[in-house]
Design brief:
The structure is a homodimer of 581-residue chains. By secondary structure, the first copy, chain A, is α+β, with helices and mostly antiparallel strands. Chain A is 34% helix and 29% strand. In chain A, the strands form eight sheets. Chain A has a nine-stranded mixed β-sheet. The mean pLDDT of chain A is 93.
Chain lengths: 581, 581
Amino acid sequence: MTLYDKVMELSKRRGFLWPSFEIYGGTSGFVTYGPYGAILKLNIENMWRDFFIYKQENFIEIETPIIMPSAVFEASGHLEHFTDPIIACLKCEKRYRADHLIEELVGVSVEGLAISEMNKIVKEKDLKCPDCKGDLGEVELFNLMFKTNIGAYKGDVGYARPEAAQGMFVEFKRIFNIMREKLPLGIAQIGKTMRNEISPRKGVTRLREFTIMEVEVILDPEEINNCPAFEKYKDTDIMLLTASLQQKGEPPVNITVERALEERLIDNKWLAYFLTVSKNFVKSLGVADDKIRFREQLPHEKAHYSKQTIDLQVYLDGQGWTEIAGHAYRTDWDLSRHIKYSGVDMRVFKKADTPLTVRKLVLKPSKATIGPDFQKDAARVIEELNKLDAAEVKRQLTTQGFIEVAGKKLTSKHIEFEEREEVVKGKKFIPHVIEPSYGADRLVYTTLEHAYSEKEGRIILKLPVKLAPIQIMVYPLVERDGLPDVATQIYRELLGEGFRVEYDVSGSIGRRYARADEIGVPLGITVDYQTLEDKTVTVRDRDTWRQRRVFISELVNILKQFFEGRIYFNQIGSPVDTNLE
Amino acid sequence: MTLYDKVMELSKRRGFLWPSFEIYGGTSGFVTYGPYGAILKLNIENMWRDFFIYKQENFIEIETPIIMPSAVFEASGHLEHFTDPIIACLKCEKRYRADHLIEELVGVSVEGLAISEMNKIVKEKDLKCPDCKGDLGEVELFNLMFKTNIGAYKGDVGYARPEAAQGMFVEFKRIFNIMREKLPLGIAQIGKTMRNEISPRKGVTRLREFTIMEVEVILDPEEINNCPAFEKYKDTDIMLLTASLQQKGEPPVNITVERALEERLIDNKWLAYFLTVSKNFVKSLGVADDKIRFREQLPHEKAHYSKQTIDLQVYLDGQGWTEIAGHAYRTDWDLSRHIKYSGVDMRVFKKADTPLTVRKLVLKPSKATIGPDFQKDAARVIEELNKLDAAEVKRQLTTQGFIEVAGKKLTSKHIEFEEREEVVKGKKFIPHVIEPSYGADRLVYTTLEHAYSEKEGRIILKLPVKLAPIQIMVYPLVERDGLPDVATQIYRELLGEGFRVEYDVSGSIGRRYARADEIGVPLGITVDYQTLEDKTVTVRDRDTWRQRRVFISELVNILKQFFEGRIYFNQIGSPVDTNLE
């Protein structure tokens, strides 16, 4: 049994995660988090918030819808670019990822190849459907967004978002205003995202529905190397596999982020800073230093919006180095596109040190033509027109021959332009974006695999104490002689104090300890016969199986100190000689 | 300006919530939570977890997918029942909620009317499209689930879930097993839900995408009046509007839950218990006692699965009594249906006090017919057949004439039945379900409206301290003389200690206080000239505008005590005579 199989078996049996809809035969690409997995995932999300929002200055979290109207994805480029090549069998109608199928049948990588080139290979090699040996059709592009209709009108198409980021971009203007127009501004979001994968992988590596955790760090491109927070972390060592090393077939280098920046392996300081935040975050999930590396995406792998993307990969059993986060320098791509497609000016004003003289294009609604052409709507047309950016209006008139204002089509006869010289106190610019983006589901699996250990033929899930879904188990040694009463009382007190605690009375004490170890419960409290005599209980440590005795009256206080990280296990109460494994 | 308009204006301006996709003209039914709204919503969700999961025994949380295959909703009845009547104009093609349109045009309530009766009214009254005066078509049923395709095959239809509950039901068997087969078992979920409303309302009252918080309390129907936790809350007073009072046009009664139970106004004790949990929860959001009432749904309003549904309503300005939670007794509807549609036995075994003699139907695969008919698949067919419940197999053979086993159609010639007398140690039963279900978005609005107050022409958002998105503001009195340095240092220390804190330096101190009051920040810390002399700062209370002086060295400790509810504001440091409003 591979480590992967062991972790997934444990996950299913103990209630962390498993494939959804089992009673209906399952649907690949969907996963269910059980009683322990759902809390583990929440704990990981909250730890991420700590690193990527709460501990950063001027970083905030928002929540935007999953379903978005098609206009958003026309602007973002996802309607055009967010596709995979597919090929269908003309006989049995089965569909395949075209690149995967060609790789499988021909044995060569077709990554980055154009559709026409893939079609050529299919024809030349006379490839057939592996299932029924039927002829294959043409390679086509399949959009990976889930499509639906909003409302009862067939025409109102919407899509489930394939990333959270667009929610931040379309709301940027209002948020920037609310946050008192300061840059850099970090806008984060944790939420569900959907990608209609053609061939979802096993486990959680390629899901159709998953939780994304993203921050869009919005900044002045002229300040992209001004990152005060970087100073503290500049000596962080990273294992870095650049695009160029990959192209040369060479292994990654170990290098400090500062040096990598000097050697221009990382585009800018803010991007470099987030590599260090990411490394520290992933280490706090329990992943060892040598199982974390950064890989730059190759030119053909990068998303359409990215200047440089550096993935964080962790080493997973059976899957090798696996991407769990991306750090993309999205430049001004998204904001520029939304400005263009919505006609709303989302540029940011920047005060200059000294006033500047600039030539500025201004527009003047031509009342002589607008009046007669639009009658009673003329006033509204003029009002709306005056709100628009002159350069953008001119661009649209030039490219498409008209511009829509207040629902009316205006042509060049309705608008006059004029260049004016103006003394301005600053300039407007489109901010740039650095984006660290995480998949929460992969983090849950990574955390589980790296916590998995075995001792004397038993499984111990050594989850970091902060992430453990259940902090404390409470047990009566046996189910008689009044022990359950005392244990229940302790259980309820701890529940009331806000601990995540469970009461377990079923089976032998050894079996109950074993179950708690498999769930990763850091501490167990056992009420035994000595409890009835001296009002003490034992506290058991998951990782060492050692036990210590504590007065019930001191329990809450000691447990608080332990879970706040203020005392170690061996500072709890007094030692116990024997244990009950 | 109504209170509703004031709250929404504040929400938008200060960054709690606003309609989504504004730059693209907006799409009704979608809402965005800004920097303060997203945290407020998270805080409300976590408070809900406290009341409905963490403080309940054997209650756990799971996370299941939003997109589910159609098989789930065939079984749950949503494909058939989750509909609204619509009517389209034959000329301009505009679509309307048929019942709303008839009510608007004719002025009578058509609630609960059949489609045929609505069609009759449309014809008799010769109703026309209010927009273009065109003829109207037939009233039809429109399914409110968002539809999509899973994968590249057109046939694999999926729907966005209209409630979280089905996720709990389809996973019940595994979760029950993980939780060591104890009832009652509470399975909770907080997550996004989608309903393709035909006419979404303004604000957050009827959204197309919203967050649901649900618990399915799964229990033995014979134990539905055995609820030990109820005892502590049985004297809780509630304002109750029964179906019968509504039918008689009478006002609600004030009654204890215990008395309501005795008078059979509430179906069972578990349902009654959750009314008390709900009331306490909603009060903790800051809603006054007399703004909370419980309304029983009328027979025609109830969902297809419900025996009794009691809504919790809060009084909102302009909207009147508004449903923010439902408490439904779903009986065994859902589990029965999923057992039937999936063929998986999800019944629960219950040990009897004394062994019972029962007549039991058993099935015997008829090898003489299965062998020849299914050849090499025969062994697998027999194996699968033996796993099925005999009574269910017989039912399917009787109703549809065949049963599908291992992909093969079996008829009655393949299966023999026999009744046997057996001494059994217990029986199997289908558990029943009580469901408290909340809309998180409505709770956010409710919390904001009930926190909204005005004082001397200024707005104060008196959010409960536990819910405040920002706990502390840190201000330098002025932006010079070293005050910002000290303030920044305090800000960073508090950030490091895990407080939700903001630093504000922009504008006069009075304006900054006013902004903090509008966001509902409970405490403000001001660094002034005295700070430079004696290392003290002032702490300002949002609700009273009073200030007290505290040593910086004691700040963290005092703030912790305040936010844990261990000290009151007037126990902080020493009083200050003047304040700076």
